[in-house]
Amino acid sequence: MSCSVTLKKLSFKNGEDILCQNIDLNVTHKEKIAIIGPNGCGKTTLLNIIAGLQKQESGSLEIFHNNIKNENDFKPLRNLMGYLFQNSDNQFLAPVVIDDVAFSLLSGGMEKKEALLKAKMILQDLDIEHLKDKIVYNLSGGEKKLVALAGVLVTQPKLMLLDEPTNALDLKMQLKLVEILKNMDKSIIIVSHNREFIDSIVHSIYEITPNGLKLTATPMKPLEHSHSHD
Amino acid sequence: MISTAFGLIATTIYSFGLSFFDNIYLSMFLPSIFLMILKKEAIVQTFKKLIFLNIFIAFVSLSAILSKDYELALLIFLRSNALLLFMLLIFYKKTIFDIAISMQTLKVPDKLATVFFFVAKFIVIMKEEYEVTKKVMKTRNFKAKSNIYSYKIYSNVIGIIIVKCFDRADKLKDSMILRNFQGKIYQSKTDKFTKMDFLIFCVIIFSLSIKFAKVTL
User: What are the residue ranges in chain A where pLDDT is below 70?
Assistant: First the structure.
């Protein structure tokens, strides 16, 4: 079974105290999972460790079967991973929508014309092409989220990490996001408090506890694969 | 329509031109008068902003007045006002991001343009944080008084904004790592110079060339 993310006996700290230990997780190819838990339990920290933004205290991390030991190991995998920030403003690196969406392609060395065409196509897919020439900071919360999502999707990542994706979204925008994520053929890890939202997207829901992850629900069964979890 | 890139060039030329004169002539206000004719809707807003900015100019002029150099005080006052009026008019309704975008048109080095963009981004962030904090103070019934408690609150607010900006800077660094930032911001939009830009350029050169109606005490 092809795995996108494998965590073994992972533990991480918050300051001097161990926040979480014995975290074992396998996220298989095209599987969608959610991680829930109370505030301050380490959900975002875990997501940051998977994204290579923070280092774990102990344990092993494998991304697409590559054992990650240091920051350099993440470099060839960056384009295979997409991270959607809780606050979309933090994600923007260019002032105009189309430029921000095309950013990762252009910095990866793609031809300007091709990158802009791809960016335009992704904006069309998300039904926000009309925003392409707008300044990102002048958009509404929902529009910002969709633009940030477009910036992530444009690189065609195989693994998506979403930190509170429904934050600051109204119901209509949440439903739109549900439809987009539901139809996505990628491995997705969502950290969210919004139970209704994750119930309609993910295959499994894990609760983060000080002593590891606990499978709490399987709202939608994964397609054509069995899920293994320690 | 005036392009932002031209606005930057025009401001540079006009400010250099003004700085080389030892006296102020009314003819130097010609570019601003011309812009006011073009942008009638901007006049009220521009003068409101100019009056506010004059608080700072007054302090500088005051230092010359205190040393009894009234001519210099007048020169500082008029020169600053001429330049500010011109800048407020030429950049009327332009955002800081328009200026960041125009840097690419002007072929400013990538690093400089990128730094300018991040400065613009953090000005917006700080403004947002300030607005939020202002609302919080209002809803929590804070009344500004001239006492230690009020000053303490103000210092706390400044501290909070700085801490929040540090946090946002950390997040920005994370975004750079995740999105494969290579030290450059890519922009597809570029400014195009217009006929109006050329006309304004001619007015600037004309106004700096003729010395008409000297202003003296």
Answer: 1, 220-230
CA distance B14 to B207: 9
Minimal Cβ distance to A51: which of B176, B178, B184: B178
A chain contacts of residue B178, beta-carbon cutoff 8 Å: 51, 53, 78, 81, 83
Q: Alpha-carbon Rg of chain B, whole angstroms?
A: 21
Is the ipTM, as predicted for this complex, more than 0.85? no
Q: Is B23 exposed, middle or buried (0-12, 13-18, 19+ CB in 10 A)?
A: middle
- Classify residue A53 as exposed, middle or buried by CB count within 10 Å of its CB (0-12, 13-18, 19+): buried
pTM: 0.79
B186 CB within 8 Å of a chain A CB: yes
Question: In sequence order, which residues have a C-beta less than 8 Å from that of residue B160 and are 6 or more positions away?
Answer: B129, B133
Report H helices in B20-69.
30-38, 43-66
Half-sphere exposure in the Cβ direction for B121 (13 Å, CA): 22
- Residue in A78, A99, A115 nearest the CB of B187: A99
Backbone angles phi, psi at A5, to 5 degrees: -135, 135
Considering only the beta carbons, identify the residue of B120, B181, B186 that sits closest to A99. B186
